[in-house]
Structures are given as C-alpha cells and as structure tokens.
Design a protein that fits this description.
heterodimer, B: 192 residues, globular
Chain lengths: 214, 192
C-alpha cells in the first residue's frame, strides 16, 4: 500500500505531467535510453543540491531574505542561477577528475541538465516567495508518507523536496522509455512519428493523472 | 566558418522553436490557455530572449563553453529584472513562475550557441527576431484555439461555440494540442 501511495504522490506532483517543466530536455534526451536515464539522474542531483545550497544561503545570509515578495521574485533568478552555476562547475571538475576518458561523453549531459526549466522550476517551487513569507511549507508531504510537511527553509526539507521532484522526473523518463521505440516505429504516421507522438503521449498520461488526482 | 545566409521562412516555420525544435514547451503548454495570456507570454519571452541573446553574442568565443553558458544565464537573469518590473504594470502575474523560468529557456542557453552565434553578425538580429516571432505565432495559435474551445471566447468576448470543453484549459490539453500542431507543421515542412 505504501508503494502505491508513493507512486501516486510522485505522479500527483510530477514536474512533467502537471507543470510541463523539463519537457524540452526530456524531448532532447529521448533519442536514446542511456541519454534519458543519465539525464534524469543528473537533473535529480542538480535539483537536490540546488535546493539544499539555496537553503543554506538563505539561512547564512539574512540579506537574501527580503520582506517584499516583489523584490524577492525579482532577484531570485540571479540567486538560483548563481547557485546552479557553482554546482555545475563543481560537478564538471569532479567528473573531470574522476571519469577520465569518459569526461567528453558525460559533460554534454551536465551542460543539458544544469540550466533548464526543470531544475530552476524545482527551486522556484521550493522557495516560492508567497510560501515562505506567509510561513507555510512545501506543498505536499514527502512521497505520501504521513510525516509532517516540511519547511523548505530547512536543509532536510529542501533535500526531501529535491529528491521528490527528481524521482518524479525519473518516473516520467521511465514512462517515456517504456514506449519510446513504439513512438518512433514506422507504423506511426510520418507526421506524428517521434516528437509529436511523444507530446500526445505525455498529454494522455497527464490527463489520466489529472483524473486520478482530482 | 560562419553561415552567411538564412531564410525568413526558416525562423518562422521550418525551424520553428517550438514545433520543429521542441524548445520552450512548458510555458506554452501551461500558460497559453487564453489569447491574452499567450500575448503576454510572447511579449515577455521576446523581451528576455531578444536582449539576452543579442547581448550575449558579444561574449568572446575564447571563453570555454562551460563558463559561457553561465554568462548567458546570468545575463538573462539580469535582463529579467527590468522586464519583470515592466510586467508588474501589465498584469503579467498570470504567467506565474513561468516568467522567471524564461531566463533559462533553451533559446538562450542552448540554441543561441548551436545556431545564432554561427550566423554572421549582420544576420544575427533578423534571424533572432524571426525565430522569436515563430515562437509567438505558435503561442498565439495555441492560446486562441484553447480559449475558443475551452471558454467560448476570444480575448474575453463571447463567440458562438456549440460545445465548450473546459478541460482544454488544463496542461494535458496543451500537450495534446501542441502534438497535433507539430504533426500539422511537419506535414507542411517535413524533416529532411
């Protein structure tokens, strides 16, 4: 039962199916199985690290916490971009040191997964000014477990939020992987083959999830 | 070697950012459920993308790509500030969190490097303008169709539609409509 609840929770808050975030990246990566899985893992890593580092910054630099929602929303993209940039450079340096000859293959995934709507979207959702200024918390409890909702402004809360969003993206990738071959098959009309068929497929899944969770 | 020609039809149709390249899908799917929202999104996208890509074209190519991509994202985040201030006067709140997300759209961080900066400088601005126009055209078409079918209105004015399908304002309908529009686009401009 717990697994079912977790599954539903991942679907109900899914970045792709409910907010369409990261769809372009998913499309770009959908050409091969390995692309999709590596990219999903990379994006999960960036989401989790981004949320945690931003939380630490918010707590350690009080200047970043502005009373005005307007000011906060004006400057948040710069802050999030700076945070992701730092993580991006650290990841690139680590991969350069550890992956050896594979570095040139892996680095394209790092480029693609660092600066995109999904990672930035997770951070915007996690630290939405309206939410923290009114003292409310991350919108859902973690993976359907009956633990109390978490304050995104704690490292633990942001960690769990990042993991949940990352797992959601991974799940969406797995859904796409399952039918990818068929959506590119010659039996599909040429006009719909590939990208348009993927969009319709995501739309149908999104409609089903919408119906389940309403 | 830099490309020294492009055709107007490329930006608007053949290499349409959304329909052919699959970029910037999220705002179109979620925000474009009415024509006014589509127009607002188009304006915000045009301001952020045009300024960001044109300014970023001056960054020297000697800077490694890993650092250049950071500079692109920071440039668009800085441009976002005046655009968002302008937006606060024009009721841009309807776009919600998708407005700041335009700062890291694929156009700015990816497509600029793969396409625009390979063009000669004199062609960059017209090509950029036409590609942005292609995005706006797609947004307007999706917004218009969804508004008519879901709400029976055009820009809030009631039109005679026999059956309303309010579900079409949801993101799932955005995906399906966009998929159908992509297929229609591909029929007219098949991939080589």
């Amino acid at each position: 039962m717990w697994i079912f609840t977790v599954f539903l929770s991942l679907l109900a808050d899914n970045l792709i199916f409910t907010k369409a975030l990261g769809t372009s990246t998913l499309m770009a990566a959908s050409k091969s199985r390995s692309n999709l899985l590596i990219l999903s893992l990379m994006m999960s890593l960036f989401s989790v690290a981004g949320c945690m580092l931003t939380t630490i910054l918010y707590w350690s630099i009080p200047l970043l916490r502005h009373e005005s929602v307007m000011v906060e929303s004006l400057f948040s993209p710069i802050l999030y971009t700076a945070v992701i940039s730092v993580i991006y450079i650290v990841v690139l340096l680590l991969l350069y040191a550890l992956s050896g000859k594979w570095f040139s293959t892996i680095k394209k995934y790092v480029h693609l997964s660092a600066f995109n709507c999904a990672v930035m979207g997770v951070m915007h959702l996690c630290f939405a000014p309206e939410r923290f200024l009114t003292g409310s918390f991350v919108p859902t409890d973690f993976l359907g477990m009956s633990m109390p909702v978490m304050d995104a402004r704690t490292v633990y809360g942001s960690l769990l939020f990042g993991i949940q969003m990352g797992l959601g993206f991974l799940l969406a990738s797995l859904f796409l992987l399952a039918v990818r071959k068929r959506l590119y098959a010659p039996e599909v009309p040429a006009a719909f083959r590939g990208f348009p068929a993927i969009l319709v497929y995501i739309g149908l899944l999104s409609m089903a999830i919408h119906a389940i969770t309403v | 070697m830099k490309q020294n020609k492009f055709s107007a039809i490329d930006g608007l149709f053949r290499r349409n950012a959304v329909l052919a390249e699959g970029m910037v899908i999220a705002p179109i799917v979620v925000c474009c459920d009415t024509l006014p929202k589509a127009l607002i999104l188009s304006l915000a996208f045009a301001c952020i993308t045009f300024l960001s890509v044109s300014i970023a074209s001056f960054f020297p190519k000697s800077i490694p790509y890993a650092l250049r991509i950071i500079l692109y994202a920071i440039t668009s985040s800085l441009i976002y500030i005046p655009v968002a201030m302008l937006c606060s006067y024009l009721n841009f709140a309807v776009i919600g969190m998708y407005l700041p997300l335009l700062t890291v759209n694929s156009f700015v961080v990816l497509h600029s490097e793969l396409y625009f900066y390979k063009l000669q400088k004199r062609l960059l601005l017209p090509a950029l303008f036409l590609h942005i126009a292609g995005f706006c055209l797609t947004a307007v078409i999706i917004g218009l169709v969804r508004e008519i079918l879901a709400y029976g209105t055009i820009c809030g004015r009631v039109v005679d539609v026999p059956v309303l399908m309010q579900g079409l304002s949801a993101p799932w309908a955005g995906f399906i409509l966009l998929g159908i529009l992509c297929a229609v686009h591909r029929k007219f401009f098949p991939k080589k």
